[in-house]
Design a protein that fits this description.
The chain is mainly alpha-helical. It has 9 helices and 5 strands, in the order H-E-E-H-H-H-H-H-H-H-E-E-E-H. The longest helix is centred in the middle third of the chain and has 21 residues.
Length: 218
């Protein structure tokens, strides 16, 4: 649609105030941001560093070429995880749920025992979740947090109704945070609680510890 050229003086204050504000991260409003969540920035550099840590860990694996090939959406996966973590934090806060360091350490100990020790756990987290050794604790935090949120809501994650109740809480938290994603990564879907360009359902990402590969089907 063509618009007539107007001089700066012709633009009235009323016109300026009525115009929609550009808040997309790709605009000058948030330079260098991968996303803005609840008014807080997630910098592109943060996403890239997390992806770089995973790549470095993958290079030490005997299956490095295969791992790199499978994790083609690594940057989006890392941004998704960072945003989802903040949504889960907000939903948990709204429900009065908190997670202690002791609880995280306990699940990490149990997971390590399941996979033959710390080395086995690091291998599983890297291969199945694209998580570098230094990111394991934060990733496992969700494993503690989500079931506690479900419990606080009186929901059973093993049932469709229970999952719907938790998803509703996550969607409400997501909407409240007004998540704004840099277009280079896609957009954030409040209903699905995930990036539009990255297929990682919240129930799979945060509760299925064994067997699932991030972004399966993406």
């Amino acid at each position: 649609m063509h618009r007539r050229r107007r001089t700066a003086l012709a633009l009235s204050a009323a016109t300026l105030l009525a115009a929609p504000l550009l808040t997309a991260c790709g605009s000058e409003a948030h330079p260098g941001a991968a996303a803005v969540v609840g008014g807080d920035r997630i910098d592109v550099a943060t996403v890239q560093q997390q992806a770089s840590d995973v790549r470095s860990a993958q290079q030490t694996s005997g299956q490095s070429e295969e791992l790199v090939k499978k994790s083609g959406q690594l940057n989006r996966a890392k941004l998704h995880s960072l945003i989802f973590g903040r949504v889960l934090d907000r939903a948990s806060e709204d429900a009065g749920v908190s997670v202690s360091r002791k609880e995280i350490q306990q699940i990490q100990t149990e997971a390590a025992a399941q996979y033959g020790g710390d080395k086995g756990l690091r291998t599983v987290m890297l291969e199945q979740r694209w998580v570098a050794p230094g990111q394991i604790e934060e990733d496992l935090r969700k494993e503690v947090q989500l079931p506690k949120l479900a419990q606080a809501l009186g929901a059973d994650l093993q049932t469709p109704a229970g999952r719907q109740a938790v998803e509703k809480a996550l969607t409400e938290a997501s909407k409240a945070l007004h998540i704004d994603v840099n277009p280079r990564y896609g957009s954030w879907d409040d209903q699905k609680v995930q990036l539009s360009t990255y297929d990682a359902p919240w129930i799979t990402q945060a509760t299925t510890f064994q067997g699932q590969e991030p972004g399966a089907g993406a």
